Amino acid sequence: MDLPNIQTYLRPDDLENIANWGKDWAWLAGGTWLFSEPQPQLKVLVDIQHLGWSEIEVKEDYLIIGAMCPLIKLLEYSWLAEWKAIEGLKSAISALAASLKVINVATVGGNICLALSVGTLAPLMVALDASYEIWNLRGESHQVAAKDFQIGFRQTILQSGEILRRVLIPLSNLKWQVNYQRLSIAATDPALAIVVTAKNDQQIRCVIAASVAAPRLFEFKNIDFLKREYLTLLERENFIEDFRGSAKYRQEMTAILIGRTLQ
Ligand SMILES: Cc1cc2nc3c(=O)[nH]c(=O)nc-3n(C[C@H](O)[C@H](O)[C@H](O)COP(=O)(O)OP(=O)(O)OC[C@H]3O[C@@H](n4cnc5c(N)ncnc54)[C@H](O)[C@@H]3O)c2cc1C
């Protein structure tokens, strides 16, 4: 889709050359969302496609994924067999495979920063206790836990001009057993509920998403605690109510998906 309101297109070699970031500016990653619907609030697009931020690499104790890494690259990459959690990552991306065009072009950063309630990567990153490295236009960076990044539907903690540079997943967490469950009416529909669980010997992390505005993490010592407590915990959540499903329906579906992960 053309975006007729856009007046300026920037393609900087260096983020520090950007001045006067405004609220009508946006980073352009894969563009699959930005060009999918009118963006009347935007006047400036800042293209980051050429910055080379598409790395997949191991550094110190982390798997690092660049924000511009296309989703398809994560599906096709030769992962170490001992990283069992990668199955969860592949499931998360396959959930979008109904649209091949999207997964070929959409990026990890675009998916996370778009912060849809149905966002497929965010709950997985929360379950794996990933961190996000954020840069600002002064050349400073800081990290934030994935669980604290998305704070609502289309809302993140990113401040004006900040950008997600890369995702860091502790290598030890890649050995966790991960289960990704998603429910939608038709396979190509947006999810009504997503549940991701990640389990090791010390803990089990259960993340619910799509049925709530932003991913919510519950932590348990072991599976018995999860079994005992999850229905009570779900009672306290604010589930989305809209034309696609009532809050009660989404709560029930979330409980069913948690039940499936227990199996
Ligand atoms: C019809 C349709 C259905 C979809 N359904 C789903 C779905 O069910 N589940 C799901 O997970 N996704 C869904 N998506 C979203 C799809 O996954 C996104 O289009 C994609 O992830 C966005 O990635 P992109 O790289 O193309 O981002 P862009 O379209 O380029 O950008 C998306 C947003 O993120 C911002 N952004 C991008 N990169 C960064 C960065 N590094 N730092 C800060 N901000 C950044 C942009 O400014 C923009 O606001 C759907 C998209 C479409 C078009």
**CATH architecture call of the largest domain:** 2-Layer Sandwich
Number of strands: 14
Main sheet: which strands, in order across? 4-5-10-6-7
Largest sheet: 5 strands, antiparallel
What is this structure's SSE topology?
Elements: E1 8-10, E2 25-28, E3 44-47, E4 56-59, E5 62-66, H1 71-76, H2 86-94, H3 100-105, H4 108-114, H5 121-127, E6 131-135, E7 141-145, E8 150-152, E9 155-156, E10 163-170, E11 177-183, E12 193-199, E13 204-209, E14 216-220, H6 223-235, H7 247-262
Parallel strand pairs: 1-3, 2-3
Antiparallel strand pairs: 4-5, 5-10, 6-7, 6-10, 8-9, 11-12, 12-13, 13-14
Residues 26-34, 36, 67, 96, 102, 105-107, 109-111, 113-114, 116, 118-120, 158, 163-164, 190 line the site of flavin-adenine dinucleotide.
